[in-house]
Amino acid sequence: MQLVVTGATGFLASRLIGQALSKGYQVIALARDPDRVASKSSRLQIEKWSIGDALPAVMKADAILHLAAYIPADLTDAHQAAKCFEVNTNGALRVAMDAASQGVKRFVFFGSGQVYTPAPVPASETSPAFPVDRASYYLASKLSAEICLLAFGTANAMPVTVLRLASVYGPGMHGSGMVPTFIRALGSGRSVAIRDGGRYRVDLVFVDDVVSLALEAIEKEKAGVFNAGSGYGCTSLEAAQIVADILGADPNLVNVDGERGNGSTTGFATLNVAKAAEQLGYSPRAFREGIEAWKAETGLADFRNGSAQG
User: What is the Cα–Cα distance from 8 to 37, expressed in whole angstroms?
Assistant: First the structure.
């Protein structure tokens, strides 16, 4: 099987390429900076490419997995909206058009599970999507890309799979964000402050579970939209306590600002993963299991001394 991966130097794409190669697949990695593609293999072909460029020769690949995207530094800046749509929507559609013209069999788009309208119950693939609460320009561009790609795929007989990702964590991720912050501080014996009583809630999914789901969708030739989360909304307090426990850190290093459990929760929707479980055999890890797997691989030393893999 031959796969094409865009955005090949990114956290998730790097992990995807590594696992695809380990399964014996041929991979064409497309990256702005080919020298940063970490994997090395005789089955790996690396090409210099950016969104907006014509797709290089990938004739009749089994699937293209599109991970390249533009994420603005300031997610609230309306001036960034045009670039979000140009890169994330128009750019993705052009990739699909180029791929179809070369006879690529399938298209896999990595979208966002944060497009859903906040609700008290886990969001299924048919739940309302209306991302106006935060990161609206970026998330709207990802959602509009889904619409365009699914329409194009239907009209051109190229099956399209959309994976709506929860918050992905694991080995190789960049050093910002909630989970790396907890690992960095608690692993160094420093305290962490949990704001708003620890009410922030987010679906945290281990990177290898997302990769396995993507490859399974290709192997089983499943099109449509699938949630790629853990199926559980983990609070910031729970996450910090789990990281502290697995690192063997003093639990008193986890400090909570504000009253616990009072007021409405904040954060993003928990993703209902029943569809992926039923059709693709998806069985994601709980957050504790993911952190334990990460520790087994790297010792959770990724962010010590301010360093991070990337």
Answer: 6
